[in-house]
Fold each of these.
Amino acid sequence: MSVLPSANASSELVISQRFGPRLRLVLAVLGLFGCAVVFRDLGSGLWPIGLNSLFIGTILAGGMFVCGFLVLSAFFGECVTVVVRDNFALIERHSPFGVRREILSRGAVTSARAVPNEWDSRADTWRVAIAFADGREMLTPDLASRAEAENAAMLIERWLGQTSSR
């Protein structure tokens, strides 16, 4: 995750999250390997059908569920880039199936604020919640610190021409 001010820091803000091909390949291989191991080790416990089949089938389904999500994230995960420029904001989502772009004028965005993303297993990260005039809200990818998220929100608020309430 990175927040990059451009050479002209007052006119552009870029927030991006990479999801490169190496990571996709690693997730797909781990997911497929996990599915194969789970099915090879536990699949024989399903037959002949009996009381143990229900118990082993539940464990097998759980393993396939977890490993299947690795494969799905490899195929459907997106690289997200939010670019705020002088006249518009651009949200780009790149996936293996194509690129989706959303171009927003200043009137389409109503506010931006820093929000925490709480984790049990690691330090909290921060995001910027961008509110749209049609009622939708978009969260940016994770940012490393509260200061970074508040700075990005302040830059978006400044782009909107609003004074920050922080």
Amino acid sequence: MQKAFESLDGALSASDHRAANALVQWSLAGYAQVARTPPDYDILSDAPHPLAPFARAISDIRPLARQFGDPAPGVPARFESCLVEINDSYLELAAPLIRERASRAKRAADLEPLLQKLSVFPILPNQPGGEVYTELRARQSQLAADEERARALAKARADQAERDRLTASASRALGVARRYVQAIDAGQIDAAANLLAEDIFLYSPKGNARGRSAVSARMREAASRAAGARLLTPELTSDFRVVSRIYSDRGSGTMTFQVVADRIARIELSQ
């Protein structure tokens, strides 16, 4: 501590700077309190960091010291540099325990309280304590990356499960739609109508219809004047819709099926 303030002696002696002298007295008193901190303090315990009060005090003093101009601001800065060295010593002494704690951590969040506690003062990256802190931060980053990969994998699995569910549902719907088209092509209107839900809704540019009876009537009407019309085998689209293309002398269109509980609940005709 004495060495840390030697460079300020000249400036303090050459000026009658009461604020700076007062800050030196405050710093020396603070250092005396630091010297009384337990040498066997366990930095991994839940107990507050013994240097934390001094960190807060320096934070409060620093802007006040600036108001007095040189050399006052240098005093809390030198005091802080001493505490930084002390904190690094804490880290160095506890390095084996810190590394062991890091190796046992399962989640990145498990290490955050310790990292916050250890960084009560700026870390010296090229000192032994700073090196173990850097290792701890790297371990946290590794755990965070592992967690992100695990989340991405879980999402991919969930997405795959959802795709599998949609594919299975769409495949069943496709089978119903194909039986419907096959029955229409064979002129078996009653068989096709049996595949319709009771409350089926038909959407058509030529007018809508609801209910199996109404839609069946529209089917028979269309069959009676559908000479030359061709209804292709239904297929699945990339977004799991069941569609069939229609070609006739009057043009072409698309028939989209919605199937619920193995019955056609909606047919949408579009040009």
